[in-house]
Protein backbone atom coordinates (compact mmCIF):
# COMPACT_ATOMS: atom_id res chain seq x y z
CA UNK A 1 0.00 0.00 0.00
CA UNK A 2 2.71 2.36 1.03
CA UNK A 3 4.99 1.49 -1.84
CA UNK A 4 2.10 1.91 -4.27
CA UNK A 5 1.51 5.41 -3.02
CA UNK A 6 5.19 6.16 -3.35
CA UNK A 7 5.27 4.96 -6.92
CA UNK A 8 2.32 7.14 -7.69
CA UNK A 9 3.97 10.10 -6.07
CA UNK A 10 7.18 9.51 -8.01
CA UNK A 11 5.75 10.20 -11.45
CA UNK A 12 2.83 12.52 -11.11
CA UNK A 13 4.11 14.94 -13.69
CA UNK A 14 4.58 12.21 -16.31
CA UNK A 15 1.09 10.87 -15.73
CA UNK A 16 -0.29 14.36 -15.77
CA UNK A 17 1.45 15.17 -19.01
CA UNK A 18 0.22 12.01 -20.62
CA UNK A 19 -3.36 12.46 -19.53
CA UNK A 20 -3.19 16.10 -20.60
CA UNK A 21 -2.06 14.98 -24.03
CA UNK A 22 -4.91 12.44 -24.21
CA UNK A 23 -7.38 15.04 -22.98
CA UNK A 24 -6.06 17.37 -25.69
CA UNK A 25 -6.56 14.66 -28.25
CA UNK A 26 -10.12 13.91 -27.14
CA UNK A 27 -10.83 17.57 -27.74
CA UNK A 28 -8.94 18.00 -31.01
CA UNK A 29 -9.35 14.62 -32.74
CA UNK A 30 -11.91 16.01 -35.21
CA UNK A 31 -9.27 18.53 -36.31
CA UNK A 32 -6.73 15.75 -36.88
CA UNK A 33 -9.37 13.86 -38.83
CA UNK A 34 -10.00 16.89 -41.07
CA UNK A 35 -6.29 17.09 -41.84
CA UNK A 36 -5.96 13.35 -42.45
CA UNK A 37 -6.69 13.30 -46.21
CA UNK A 38 -4.23 16.12 -46.87
CA UNK A 39 -1.63 14.47 -44.65
CA UNK A 40 -2.02 11.09 -46.39
CA UNK A 41 -1.58 12.69 -49.82
CA UNK A 42 1.45 14.62 -48.58
CA UNK A 43 3.05 11.47 -47.18
CA UNK A 44 2.35 9.27 -50.19
CA UNK A 45 2.93 11.71 -53.04
CA UNK A 46 5.48 14.10 -51.54
CA UNK A 47 7.41 12.36 -48.77
CA UNK A 48 7.65 8.87 -50.32
CA UNK A 49 9.26 10.24 -53.52
CA UNK A 50 11.75 12.14 -51.34
CA UNK A 51 12.78 8.78 -49.86
CA UNK A 52 13.05 7.47 -53.40
CA UNK A 53 15.90 9.94 -53.94
CA UNK A 54 18.29 7.26 -52.59
CA UNK A 55 18.34 5.98 -56.16
CA UNK A 56 20.57 8.93 -57.06
CA UNK A 57 23.30 7.00 -55.22
CA UNK A 58 22.48 3.68 -56.91
CA UNK A 59 22.55 2.17 -60.36
CA UNK A 60 18.80 1.76 -60.22
CA UNK A 61 17.32 -0.98 -62.35
CA UNK A 62 13.53 -1.17 -62.38
CA UNK A 63 13.56 -4.97 -62.18
CA UNK A 64 15.90 -4.92 -59.13
CA UNK A 65 14.15 -2.12 -57.22
CA UNK A 66 15.59 0.01 -54.44
CA UNK A 67 16.79 -2.91 -52.34
CA UNK A 68 18.77 -4.92 -54.86
CA UNK A 69 20.20 -2.21 -57.13
CA UNK A 70 23.95 -1.55 -56.73
CA UNK A 71 25.15 1.37 -54.63
CA UNK A 72 27.53 3.65 -56.51
CA UNK A 73 28.03 6.60 -54.16
CA UNK A 74 28.50 9.94 -55.86
CA UNK A 75 29.27 8.54 -59.32
CA UNK A 76 26.30 10.23 -61.00
CA UNK A 77 27.05 13.57 -59.39
CA UNK A 78 30.64 13.35 -60.63
CA UNK A 79 29.53 12.61 -64.17
CA UNK A 80 27.15 15.56 -63.98
CA UNK A 81 30.19 17.84 -63.80
CA UNK A 82 32.32 15.78 -66.18
CA UNK A 83 30.01 15.75 -69.19
CA UNK A 84 30.27 18.87 -71.33
CA UNK A 85 26.59 18.47 -72.13
CA UNK A 86 25.39 18.66 -68.52
CA UNK A 87 27.69 21.57 -67.65
CA UNK A 88 26.31 23.43 -70.67
CA UNK A 89 22.77 22.63 -69.48
CA UNK A 90 23.49 24.23 -66.09
CA UNK A 91 24.81 27.37 -67.80
CA UNK A 92 21.81 27.54 -70.12
CA UNK A 93 19.50 27.28 -67.13
CA UNK A 94 21.29 30.07 -65.28
CA UNK A 95 21.44 32.42 -68.29
CA UNK A 96 17.79 31.97 -69.24
CA UNK A 97 16.43 32.18 -65.69
CA UNK A 98 18.50 35.22 -64.71
CA UNK A 99 17.35 37.08 -67.84
CA UNK A 100 13.76 36.12 -67.05
CA UNK A 101 14.05 37.22 -63.41
CA UNK A 102 15.65 40.59 -64.22
CA UNK A 103 13.28 41.59 -67.01
CA UNK A 104 10.36 39.88 -65.29
CA UNK A 105 10.89 42.21 -62.35
CA UNK A 106 11.61 45.40 -64.25
CA UNK A 107 8.91 45.29 -66.95
CA UNK A 108 5.81 44.83 -64.72
CA UNK A 109 6.94 47.67 -62.43
CA UNK A 110 7.31 50.06 -65.39
CA UNK A 111 3.99 49.06 -66.95
CA UNK A 112 2.22 49.38 -63.60
CA UNK A 113 3.60 52.92 -63.22
CA UNK A 114 2.54 53.82 -66.76
CA UNK A 115 -0.92 52.32 -66.25
CA UNK A 116 -1.29 54.41 -63.11
CA UNK A 117 -1.05 57.54 -65.28
CA UNK A 118 -4.23 56.60 -67.16
CA UNK A 119 -7.15 58.40 -65.56
CA UNK A 120 -10.05 56.93 -67.52
CA UNK A 121 -11.10 53.81 -65.62
CA UNK A 122 -12.68 52.29 -68.76
CA UNK A 123 -9.39 52.24 -70.68
CA UNK A 124 -7.47 51.19 -67.59
CA UNK A 125 -9.76 48.25 -66.94
CA UNK A 126 -9.73 47.11 -70.59
CA UNK A 127 -5.95 47.15 -70.67
CA UNK A 128 -5.87 45.10 -67.46
CA UNK A 129 -8.37 42.57 -68.82
CA UNK A 130 -6.28 41.98 -71.94
CA UNK A 131 -2.83 41.80 -70.35
CA UNK A 132 -3.85 39.36 -67.60
CA UNK A 133 -5.22 36.84 -70.11
CA UNK A 134 -2.04 35.12 -71.41
CA UNK A 135 -1.14 34.05 -67.87
CA UNK A 136 -4.03 31.59 -67.86
CA UNK A 137 -3.23 29.92 -71.18
CA UNK A 138 -0.91 26.94 -70.98
CA UNK A 139 2.42 26.69 -72.78
CA UNK A 140 0.93 23.93 -74.91
CA UNK A 141 -1.56 26.38 -76.39
CA UNK A 142 0.93 29.24 -76.55
CA UNK A 143 3.66 26.94 -77.87
CA UNK A 144 1.36 25.83 -80.68
CA UNK A 145 0.55 29.46 -81.46
CA UNK A 146 4.17 30.66 -81.28
CA UNK A 147 5.48 27.88 -83.51
CA UNK A 148 2.94 28.97 -86.12
CA UNK A 149 3.59 32.71 -85.66
CA UNK A 150 7.39 32.41 -85.75
CA UNK A 151 7.61 29.93 -88.61
CA UNK A 152 10.29 30.74 -91.21
CA UNK A 153 7.95 29.67 -93.96
CA UNK A 154 5.37 32.44 -93.85
CA UNK A 155 4.79 32.84 -90.13
CA UNK A 156 3.01 36.12 -89.33
CA UNK A 157 6.04 37.64 -87.57
CA UNK A 158 8.49 36.91 -90.38
CA UNK A 159 5.99 38.15 -92.95
CA UNK A 160 5.66 41.44 -91.06
CA UNK A 161 9.45 41.81 -90.77
CA UNK A 162 9.86 41.19 -94.50
CA UNK A 163 6.97 43.34 -95.69
CA UNK A 164 7.53 46.30 -93.41
CA UNK A 165 11.28 46.36 -92.85
CA UNK A 166 12.65 44.21 -95.66
CA UNK A 167 14.36 41.87 -93.18
CA UNK A 168 15.10 38.34 -94.40
CA UNK A 169 13.11 35.65 -92.53
CA UNK A 170 14.65 34.79 -89.16
CA UNK A 171 14.86 31.18 -87.94
CA UNK A 172 13.57 32.11 -84.47
CA UNK A 173 13.18 28.60 -83.08
CA UNK A 174 16.08 27.03 -84.95
CA UNK A 175 18.91 29.37 -83.96
CA UNK A 176 20.22 29.12 -80.39
CA UNK A 177 20.58 32.84 -79.67
CA UNK A 178 17.24 33.74 -81.22
CA UNK A 179 15.72 30.86 -79.29
CA UNK A 180 16.87 32.32 -75.97
CA UNK A 181 15.55 35.69 -77.05
CA UNK A 182 12.14 34.19 -77.91
CA UNK A 183 12.04 32.28 -74.61
CA UNK A 184 12.72 35.37 -72.50
CA UNK A 185 10.46 37.73 -74.47
CA UNK A 186 7.53 35.32 -74.68
CA UNK A 187 7.78 34.56 -70.97
CA UNK A 188 7.69 38.27 -70.11
CA UNK A 189 4.81 38.69 -72.57
CA UNK A 190 2.82 35.92 -70.84
CA UNK A 191 3.48 36.93 -67.25
CA UNK A 192 4.04 40.70 -67.03
CA UNK A 193 0.33 41.49 -66.67
CA UNK A 194 -0.20 39.05 -63.87
CA UNK A 195 2.98 40.10 -62.09
CA UNK A 196 1.74 43.69 -62.28
CA UNK A 197 -1.34 43.09 -60.08
CA UNK A 198 0.62 43.21 -56.87
CA UNK A 199 2.27 46.52 -57.82
CA UNK A 200 -1.04 48.08 -58.83
CA UNK A 201 -2.39 47.15 -55.40
CA UNK A 202 0.60 48.85 -53.78
CA UNK A 203 0.12 51.97 -55.91
CA UNK A 204 -3.57 52.09 -55.00
CA UNK A 205 -2.54 52.20 -51.37
CA UNK A 206 -0.57 55.46 -51.68
CA UNK A 207 -1.99 58.19 -49.51
CA UNK A 208 -3.28 60.98 -51.87
CA UNK A 209 -2.17 63.61 -49.35
CA UNK A 210 1.43 62.76 -50.25
CA UNK A 211 0.85 63.74 -53.88
CA UNK A 212 -0.91 66.92 -52.83
CA UNK A 213 2.01 67.85 -50.61
CA UNK A 214 4.47 67.13 -53.42
CA UNK A 215 2.37 69.23 -55.79
CA UNK A 216 2.43 72.18 -53.40
CA UNK A 217 6.21 71.85 -53.28
CA UNK A 218 6.26 72.17 -57.07
CA UNK A 219 7.19 68.56 -57.92
CA UNK A 220 6.61 67.46 -61.50
CA UNK A 221 4.67 64.26 -62.13
CA UNK A 222 7.93 62.41 -62.84
CA UNK A 223 9.38 63.64 -59.55
CA UNK A 224 6.21 62.57 -57.76
CA UNK A 225 6.54 59.09 -59.26
CA UNK A 226 10.19 58.79 -58.27
CA UNK A 227 9.80 60.26 -54.77
CA UNK A 228 6.31 59.23 -53.70
CA UNK A 229 5.03 56.22 -55.68
CA UNK A 230 8.26 54.23 -55.96
CA UNK A 231 9.24 54.46 -52.27
CA UNK A 232 5.77 53.19 -51.32
CA UNK A 233 6.19 50.26 -53.73
CA UNK A 234 9.72 49.48 -52.59
CA UNK A 235 8.92 46.98 -49.79
CA UNK A 236 6.79 44.79 -52.08
CA UNK A 237 9.41 45.06 -54.86
CA UNK A 238 12.05 43.85 -52.42
CA UNK A 239 9.87 40.91 -51.34
CA UNK A 240 9.10 39.86 -54.92
CA UNK A 241 12.76 40.21 -55.94
CA UNK A 242 14.08 38.14 -53.04
CA UNK A 243 11.47 35.42 -53.46
CA UNK A 244 12.59 35.09 -57.09
CA UNK A 245 15.96 33.90 -55.82
CA UNK A 246 14.48 30.42 -55.36
CA UNK A 247 13.73 30.31 -59.09
CA UNK A 248 17.31 30.66 -60.29
CA UNK A 249 17.38 27.02 -61.42
CA UNK A 250 13.82 27.12 -62.80
CA UNK A 251 14.14 28.27 -66.38
CA UNK A 252 10.60 27.17 -67.26
CA UNK A 253 10.17 23.51 -68.20
CA UNK A 254 6.70 23.82 -69.77
CA UNK A 255 7.74 26.66 -72.04
CA UNK A 256 11.05 25.23 -73.23
CA UNK A 257 9.67 21.72 -73.68
CA UNK A 258 6.94 23.02 -75.96
CA UNK A 259 9.21 25.25 -78.03
CA UNK A 260 12.60 23.58 -78.29
CA UNK A 261 13.97 21.05 -80.78
CA UNK A 262 17.34 19.32 -81.27
CA UNK A 263 18.64 22.30 -83.29
CA UNK A 264 18.74 24.50 -80.18
CA UNK A 265 19.76 21.95 -77.50
CA UNK A 266 23.19 23.61 -77.22
CA UNK A 267 21.73 26.93 -76.04
CA UNK A 268 18.18 26.11 -75.04
CA UNK A 269 18.36 22.82 -73.15
CA UNK A 270 17.82 23.35 -69.41
CA UNK A 271 18.18 21.14 -66.32
CA UNK A 272 14.53 20.07 -66.28
CA UNK A 273 14.33 19.16 -69.96
CA UNK A 274 17.68 17.38 -69.67
CA UNK A 275 16.37 15.36 -66.70
CA UNK A 276 13.25 14.47 -68.68
CA UNK A 277 15.19 13.22 -71.69
CA UNK A 278 17.75 11.35 -69.59
CA UNK A 279 15.02 9.54 -67.67
CA UNK A 280 12.08 9.08 -69.97
CA UNK A 281 13.81 8.76 -73.33
CA UNK A 282 17.19 7.22 -72.41
CA UNK A 283 15.96 5.32 -69.33
CA UNK A 284 18.94 6.58 -67.32
CA UNK A 285 16.89 6.78 -64.11
CA UNK A 286 19.64 7.16 -61.52
CA UNK A 287 21.61 9.82 -63.40
CA UNK A 288 18.41 11.81 -64.03
CA UNK A 289 17.52 11.57 -60.34
CA UNK A 290 20.98 12.78 -59.36
CA UNK A 291 20.67 15.80 -61.66
CA UNK A 292 17.20 16.51 -60.25
CA UNK A 293 18.46 16.14 -56.67
CA UNK A 294 21.35 18.52 -57.36
CA UNK A 295 18.80 21.07 -58.56
CA UNK A 296 16.40 20.46 -55.65
CA UNK A 297 19.08 20.90 -53.00
CA UNK A 298 20.41 24.15 -54.43
CA UNK A 299 16.87 25.47 -54.91
CA UNK A 300 15.97 24.48 -51.35
CA UNK A 301 18.91 26.41 -49.91
CA UNK A 302 18.11 29.42 -52.10
CA UNK A 303 14.44 29.39 -51.07
CA UNK A 304 15.34 29.26 -47.37
CA UNK A 305 17.78 32.15 -47.83
CA UNK A 306 15.23 34.14 -49.83
CA UNK A 307 12.48 33.61 -47.23
CA UNK A 308 14.86 34.78 -44.49
CA UNK A 309 15.77 37.85 -46.53
CA UNK A 310 12.14 38.59 -47.39
CA UNK A 311 11.23 38.28 -43.73
CA UNK A 312 14.07 40.53 -42.67
CA UNK A 313 13.61 43.27 -45.28
CA UNK A 314 9.94 43.05 -46.14
CA UNK A 315 8.45 41.46 -43.03
CA UNK A 316 7.05 38.72 -45.29
CA UNK A 317 5.78 35.48 -43.75
CA UNK A 318 4.50 32.36 -45.47
CA UNK A 319 1.99 31.52 -42.75
CA UNK B 1 -1.62 70.96 -61.78
CA UNK B 2 0.68 68.67 -63.75
CA UNK B 3 -2.25 67.36 -65.88
CA UNK B 4 -2.36 70.64 -67.74
CA UNK B 5 1.28 71.03 -68.70
CA UNK B 6 2.10 70.48 -72.38
CA UNK B 7 4.84 68.03 -71.54
CA UNK B 8 2.48 65.82 -69.57
CA UNK B 9 -0.13 65.91 -72.33
CA UNK B 10 2.38 64.71 -74.92
CA UNK B 11 3.52 61.99 -72.54
CA UNK B 12 -0.08 61.00 -71.84
CA UNK B 13 -0.89 60.65 -75.54
CA UNK B 14 2.14 58.41 -76.12
CA UNK B 15 1.36 56.47 -72.95
CA UNK B 16 -2.18 55.72 -74.11
CA UNK B 17 -0.91 54.65 -77.51
CA UNK B 18 1.77 52.45 -75.97
CA UNK B 19 -0.50 50.70 -73.46
CA UNK B 20 -3.27 50.10 -75.98
CA UNK B 21 -0.76 48.61 -78.44
CA UNK B 22 0.70 46.49 -75.67
CA UNK B 23 -2.66 45.11 -74.62
CA UNK B 24 -3.60 44.34 -78.22
CA UNK B 25 -0.30 42.47 -78.52
CA UNK B 26 -1.54 40.17 -75.75
CA UNK B 27 -4.51 38.94 -77.76
CA UNK B 28 -3.35 39.31 -81.38
CA UNK B 29 -1.72 35.85 -81.41
CA UNK B 30 -5.03 34.33 -80.32
CA UNK B 31 -6.93 36.32 -82.94
CA UNK B 32 -4.53 35.17 -85.63
CA UNK B 33 -5.13 31.54 -84.66
CA UNK B 34 -8.87 32.12 -84.71
CA UNK B 35 -8.63 33.72 -88.16
CA UNK B 36 -6.55 30.81 -89.51
CA UNK B 37 -8.98 28.27 -88.07
CA UNK B 38 -11.89 29.83 -89.97
CA UNK B 39 -9.93 30.25 -93.21
CA UNK B 40 -9.84 28.06 -96.27
CA UNK B 41 -7.09 25.48 -96.54
CA UNK B 42 -5.40 27.06 -99.55
CA UNK B 43 -5.51 30.59 -98.11
CA UNK B 44 -3.82 29.36 -94.94
CA UNK B 45 -1.15 27.47 -96.88
CA UNK B 46 -0.51 30.53 -99.03
CA UNK B 47 0.13 32.56 -95.86
CA UNK B 48 -2.29 35.35 -96.67
CA UNK B 49 -4.35 35.13 -93.47
CA UNK B 50 -3.62 37.84 -90.94
CA UNK B 51 -6.25 38.76 -88.37
CA UNK B 52 -9.37 38.12 -90.40
CA UNK B 53 -10.44 34.82 -91.99
CA UNK B 54 -9.89 34.47 -95.76
CA UNK B 55 -12.39 32.23 -97.65
CA UNK B 56 -14.44 31.74 -94.48
CA UNK B 57 -15.28 28.09 -93.83
CA UNK B 58 -16.11 25.82 -90.89
CA UNK B 59 -14.33 22.89 -92.53
CA UNK B 60 -11.49 22.68 -90.00
CA UNK B 61 -13.94 22.59 -87.06
CA UNK B 62 -15.92 19.86 -88.81
CA UNK B 63 -12.77 17.81 -89.29
CA UNK B 64 -11.78 18.35 -85.66
CA UNK B 65 -15.15 17.33 -84.28
CA UNK B 66 -15.25 14.29 -86.53
CA UNK B 67 -11.92 13.06 -85.21
CA UNK B 68 -12.80 10.50 -82.49
CA UNK B 69 -9.35 10.81 -80.88
CA UNK B 70 -9.86 14.54 -80.34
CA UNK B 71 -13.33 14.14 -78.88
CA UNK B 72 -12.19 11.34 -76.59
CA UNK B 73 -9.35 13.54 -75.29
CA UNK B 74 -11.77 16.42 -74.78
CA UNK B 75 -14.10 14.32 -72.64
CA UNK B 76 -11.22 12.83 -70.69
CA UNK B 77 -10.08 16.37 -69.90
CA UNK B 78 -13.53 17.35 -68.68
CA UNK B 79 -13.61 14.20 -66.53
CA UNK B 80 -10.21 14.79 -64.92
CA UNK B 81 -10.95 18.49 -64.42
CA UNK B 82 -14.27 17.95 -62.64
CA UNK B 83 -13.12 15.03 -60.51
CA UNK B 84 -9.74 16.58 -59.76
CA UNK B 85 -11.19 19.93 -58.75
CA UNK B 86 -13.87 18.36 -56.52
CA UNK B 87 -11.32 16.21 -54.71
CA UNK B 88 -8.70 18.95 -54.50
CA UNK B 89 -11.16 21.45 -53.05
CA UNK B 90 -12.48 18.97 -50.48
CA UNK B 91 -8.94 18.20 -49.30
CA UNK B 92 -7.88 21.82 -48.87
CA UNK B 93 -11.19 23.04 -47.39
CA UNK B 94 -11.04 20.47 -44.58
CA UNK B 95 -7.35 20.84 -43.88
CA UNK B 96 -7.40 24.62 -44.26
CA UNK B 97 -10.29 24.85 -41.82
CA UNK B 98 -8.57 22.74 -39.16
CA UNK B 99 -5.34 24.69 -39.58
CA UNK B 100 -7.15 28.00 -39.25
CA UNK B 101 -7.66 27.29 -35.53
CA UNK B 102 -5.49 29.30 -33.15
CA UNK B 103 -2.31 27.67 -31.86
CA UNK B 104 -3.70 27.73 -28.33
CA UNK B 105 -6.75 25.68 -29.29
CA UNK B 106 -4.85 23.31 -31.56
CA UNK B 107 -1.39 22.50 -30.23
CA UNK B 108 -0.21 20.35 -33.15
CA UNK B 109 -0.96 23.10 -35.65
CA UNK B 110 2.63 24.26 -36.01
CA UNK B 111 3.92 20.75 -36.58
CA UNK B 112 1.36 20.23 -39.35
CA UNK B 113 2.18 23.59 -40.90
CA UNK B 114 5.88 22.79 -41.23
CA UNK B 115 5.03 19.30 -42.45
CA UNK B 116 2.95 20.80 -45.28
CA UNK B 117 5.18 23.78 -46.06
CA UNK B 118 8.19 21.50 -46.46
CA UNK B 119 6.50 19.84 -49.45
CA UNK B 120 6.54 23.22 -51.20
CA UNK B 121 10.24 23.70 -50.57
CA UNK B 122 11.65 20.32 -51.50
CA UNK B 123 10.43 17.54 -53.72
CA UNK B 124 11.58 14.17 -54.96
CA UNK B 125 11.36 15.32 -58.54
CA UNK B 126 10.44 13.58 -61.76
CA UNK B 127 11.90 10.09 -61.52
CA UNK B 128 10.96 9.02 -57.96
CA UNK B 129 7.46 10.39 -58.58
CA UNK B 130 7.19 8.40 -61.77
CA UNK B 131 8.42 5.20 -60.11
CA UNK B 132 5.93 5.70 -57.27
CA UNK B 133 3.01 5.95 -59.71
CA UNK B 134 4.26 2.81 -61.46
CA UNK B 135 4.64 0.89 -58.19
CA UNK B 136 1.15 1.92 -57.04
CA UNK B 137 -0.20 0.61 -60.39
CA UNK B 138 -1.77 3.97 -61.16
CA UNK B 139 -0.35 4.12 -64.71
CA UNK B 140 -3.19 4.50 -67.22
CA UNK B 141 -5.71 5.37 -64.51
CA UNK B 142 -7.38 8.72 -63.92
CA UNK B 143 -5.93 8.70 -60.36
CA UNK B 144 -2.43 9.27 -61.73
CA UNK B 145 -3.68 12.65 -62.96
CA UNK B 146 -5.62 13.52 -59.82
CA UNK B 147 -3.98 12.22 -56.65
CA UNK B 148 -0.42 13.61 -56.96
CA UNK B 149 -1.77 17.14 -57.40
CA UNK B 150 -4.77 16.77 -55.07
CA UNK B 151 -3.07 18.73 -52.30
CA UNK B 152 -2.13 22.29 -53.23
CA UNK B 153 -0.41 23.56 -50.13
CA UNK B 154 -0.30 27.08 -51.53
CA UNK B 155 -4.09 27.18 -52.01
CA UNK B 156 -4.60 25.56 -48.64
CA UNK B 157 -2.62 28.34 -46.94
CA UNK B 158 -4.51 30.96 -48.95
CA UNK B 159 -7.82 29.53 -47.76
CA UNK B 160 -6.56 29.14 -44.20
CA UNK B 161 -5.54 32.79 -44.11
CA UNK B 162 -8.99 33.73 -45.34
CA UNK B 163 -10.69 31.60 -42.66
CA UNK B 164 -8.49 33.30 -40.06
CA UNK B 165 -9.95 36.69 -40.90
CA UNK B 166 -13.41 35.50 -39.82
CA UNK B 167 -14.19 37.08 -36.42
CA UNK B 168 -13.88 34.61 -33.55
CA UNK B 169 -17.19 35.95 -32.12
CA UNK B 170 -19.13 34.31 -34.95
CA UNK B 171 -17.69 30.93 -34.11
CA UNK B 172 -18.15 31.40 -30.35
CA UNK B 173 -21.79 32.34 -30.84
CA UNK B 174 -22.34 29.20 -32.93
CA UNK B 175 -20.59 27.08 -30.29
CA UNK B 176 -22.90 28.45 -27.60
CA UNK B 177 -25.85 27.59 -29.79
CA UNK B 178 -24.54 24.02 -29.79
CA UNK B 179 -23.14 23.86 -33.32
CA UNK B 180 -20.39 21.28 -33.89
CA UNK B 181 -17.17 21.63 -35.83
CA UNK B 182 -18.68 20.60 -39.17
CA UNK B 183 -21.78 22.69 -38.67
CA UNK B 184 -19.58 25.74 -38.09
CA UNK B 185 -17.53 24.99 -41.21
CA UNK B 186 -20.58 24.61 -43.44
CA UNK B 187 -22.76 27.38 -42.05
CA UNK B 188 -20.18 30.02 -41.16
CA UNK B 189 -16.79 29.56 -42.80
CA UNK B 190 -17.84 28.40 -46.25
CA UNK B 191 -20.63 30.96 -46.89
CA UNK B 192 -18.45 33.83 -45.64
CA UNK B 193 -15.51 32.74 -47.81
CA UNK B 194 -17.32 32.48 -51.14
CA UNK B 195 -14.97 34.93 -52.98
CA UNK B 196 -11.88 33.05 -51.82
CA UNK B 197 -13.47 29.68 -52.61
CA UNK B 198 -14.49 30.88 -56.07
CA UNK B 199 -10.96 32.12 -56.79
CA UNK B 200 -9.29 28.93 -55.67
CA UNK B 201 -11.85 26.69 -57.43
CA UNK B 202 -11.32 28.55 -60.70
CA UNK B 203 -7.54 28.35 -60.31
CA UNK B 204 -7.79 24.61 -59.70
CA UNK B 205 -10.08 24.15 -62.71
CA UNK B 206 -7.70 26.06 -64.96
CA UNK B 207 -4.74 24.14 -63.57
CA UNK B 208 -6.33 20.78 -64.35
CA UNK B 209 -7.47 21.82 -67.80
CA UNK B 210 -4.01 23.11 -68.71
CA UNK B 211 -2.11 20.21 -67.18
CA UNK B 212 -0.40 18.14 -69.89
CA UNK B 213 2.87 16.71 -68.57
CA UNK B 214 1.30 14.18 -66.19
CA UNK B 215 -0.79 12.80 -69.05
CA UNK B 216 2.33 12.49 -71.19
CA UNK B 217 4.31 10.42 -68.69
CA UNK B 218 1.58 8.54 -66.78
CA UNK B 219 -0.61 7.52 -69.70
CA UNK B 220 0.92 4.80 -71.81
CA UNK B 221 -2.42 4.33 -73.52
CA UNK B 222 -2.81 7.34 -75.82
CA UNK B 223 -6.59 6.83 -75.76
CA UNK B 224 -6.44 8.17 -72.20
CA UNK B 225 -4.61 11.37 -73.07
CA UNK B 226 -6.34 14.49 -71.74
CA UNK B 227 -6.83 17.21 -74.35
CA UNK B 228 -3.78 19.24 -73.30
CA UNK B 229 -1.54 16.18 -73.71
CA UNK B 230 -3.20 15.31 -77.02
CA UNK B 231 -2.53 18.83 -78.30
CA UNK B 232 1.04 18.70 -77.02
CA UNK B 233 1.76 15.46 -78.87
CA UNK B 234 -0.17 16.06 -82.06
CA UNK B 235 -0.08 19.82 -82.62
CA UNK B 236 3.11 20.96 -80.91
CA UNK B 237 5.44 17.95 -81.29
CA UNK B 238 3.76 16.67 -84.47
CA UNK B 239 4.33 13.15 -83.19
CA UNK B 240 1.78 10.79 -84.69
CA UNK B 241 3.76 7.63 -83.98
CA UNK B 242 2.12 6.96 -80.61
CA UNK B 243 -1.39 7.67 -81.87
CA UNK B 244 -3.36 4.99 -83.64
CA UNK B 245 -5.00 7.14 -86.28
CA UNK B 246 -6.43 6.38 -89.66
CA UNK B 247 -4.57 8.03 -92.58
CA UNK B 248 -7.35 10.54 -93.22
CA UNK B 249 -7.32 11.86 -89.63
CA UNK B 250 -3.54 11.97 -89.78
CA UNK B 251 -3.59 14.13 -92.91
CA UNK B 252 -6.19 16.40 -91.36
CA UNK B 253 -4.15 16.81 -88.19
CA UNK B 254 -1.16 18.18 -90.06
CA UNK B 255 -3.32 20.73 -91.86
CA UNK B 256 -2.62 24.25 -90.60
CA UNK B 257 -6.25 25.34 -90.27
CA UNK B 258 -7.16 22.16 -88.37
CA UNK B 259 -4.26 22.68 -85.99
CA UNK B 260 -5.47 26.22 -85.40
CA UNK B 261 -9.01 25.01 -84.73
CA UNK B 262 -7.75 22.47 -82.20
CA UNK B 263 -5.61 25.05 -80.41
CA UNK B 264 -8.56 27.39 -80.24
CA UNK B 265 -10.90 24.74 -78.86
CA UNK B 266 -8.23 23.92 -76.28
CA UNK B 267 -8.10 27.56 -75.19
CA UNK B 268 -11.86 28.11 -75.32
CA UNK B 269 -12.81 26.87 -71.82
CA UNK B 270 -10.18 29.20 -70.33
CA UNK B 271 -11.59 32.11 -72.34
CA UNK B 272 -15.08 31.22 -71.14
CA UNK B 273 -14.24 31.16 -67.43
CA UNK B 274 -11.90 34.15 -67.74
CA UNK B 275 -14.57 36.82 -67.01
CA UNK B 276 -15.48 35.03 -63.76
CA UNK B 277 -11.86 34.42 -62.99
CA UNK B 278 -10.99 38.07 -63.44
CA UNK B 279 -13.74 39.12 -61.08
CA UNK B 280 -12.03 37.31 -58.23
CA UNK B 281 -8.35 36.68 -58.82
CA UNK B 282 -7.15 40.23 -58.27
CA UNK B 283 -8.54 40.07 -54.74
CA UNK B 284 -7.13 36.58 -54.32
CA UNK B 285 -3.61 37.63 -55.30
CA UNK B 286 -3.59 40.59 -52.98
CA UNK B 287 -5.05 38.41 -50.23
CA UNK B 288 -2.26 35.89 -50.68
CA UNK B 289 0.40 38.55 -50.41
CA UNK B 290 -0.93 40.57 -47.51
CA UNK B 291 -1.22 38.79 -44.22
CA UNK B 292 -2.34 39.85 -40.80
Question: What percentage of residues of chain B falls in helices of 4 or more residues?
Answer: over 70%
pLDDT below 50 for ≥5 consecutive residues: which ranges of chain A?
1-10
- The total domain count of chain A is 2
Radius of gyration of chain B: 24 Å
Largest inter-chain contact set: A-B, 89 and 96 residues
Strand order across the biggest sheet of chain A?
Answer: 1-2
Q: End-to-end span of chain B in angstroms?
A: 38 Å
Q: How large is the count of helical segments of chain A?
A: 15
State the low-pLDDT regions of chain B, or none. none
Give the termini distance of chain A in whole angstroms: 53 Å
**Biggest beta sheet attributes of chain B:** none
CATH homology-level superfamily of the largest domain in chain B: MetI-like
Tell me the quaternary state: heterodimer
User: Helix and strand string of chain B, N-terminal first?
Assistant: HHHHHHHHHHHHHHH
Total number of beta strands of chain A: 2
Structure description:
The complex is a heterodimer of chains A (319) and B (292). Chain A is mostly helical. Chain A has two domains: 2-53, no CATH class; 84-314, MetI-like fold (Orthogonal Bundle), CATH 1.10.3720.10. Chain A is 75% helix and 1% strand. Chain A has helices at 2-10, 12-51, 65-68, 75-82, 84-116, 121-132, 139-149, 156-165, 176-204, 208-216, 221-243, 253-259, 265-268, 271-281, 285-314, and strands at residues 58-59, 70-71. Chain A has a two-stranded antiparallel sheet. In chain A, helix 4 packs across helix 15, helix 5 packs parallel to helix 9 and helix 9 crosses helix 11 (221-243). Chain A is flat, with a radius of gyration of 28 Å. Chain A starts with a helix and ends in a 5-residue tail after the last helix. The model of chain A is unreliable at 1-10 (pLDDT under 50). By secondary structure, chain B is mainly alpha-helical. Chain B has helices spanning 6-37, 41-45, 59-65, 68-99, 109-121, 126-135, 143-146, 153-164, 168-176, 181-192, 194-210, 213-218, 227-236, 247-253, 256-289. In chain B, helix 4 packs antiparallel against helix 11 (194-210). The two termini of chain B are 38 Å apart. Chain B contains 15 helices and no strands. Chain B has two domains: 2-57, no CATH class; 61-289, MetI-like fold.
Amino acid sequence: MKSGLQAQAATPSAINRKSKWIRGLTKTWPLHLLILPAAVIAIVFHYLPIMGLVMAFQDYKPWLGFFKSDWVGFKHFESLFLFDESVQVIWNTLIISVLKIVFGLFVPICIALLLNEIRKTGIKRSVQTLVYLPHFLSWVILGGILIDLLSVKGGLVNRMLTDWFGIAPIFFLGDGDWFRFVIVVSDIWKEFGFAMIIYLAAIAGVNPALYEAAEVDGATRFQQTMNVTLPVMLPIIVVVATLQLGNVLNAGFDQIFNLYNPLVYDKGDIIDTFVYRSAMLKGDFSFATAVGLFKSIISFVLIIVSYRLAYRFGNYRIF
Amino acid sequence: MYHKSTGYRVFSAFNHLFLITLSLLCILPLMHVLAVSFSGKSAATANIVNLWPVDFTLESYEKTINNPAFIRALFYSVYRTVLGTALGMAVIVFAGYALSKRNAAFKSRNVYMWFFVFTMLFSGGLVPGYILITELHLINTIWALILPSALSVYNMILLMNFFRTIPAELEEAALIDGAGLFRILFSIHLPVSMPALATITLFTLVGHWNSWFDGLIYMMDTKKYPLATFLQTVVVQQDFSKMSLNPQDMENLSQRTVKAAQIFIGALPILLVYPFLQKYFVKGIVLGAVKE
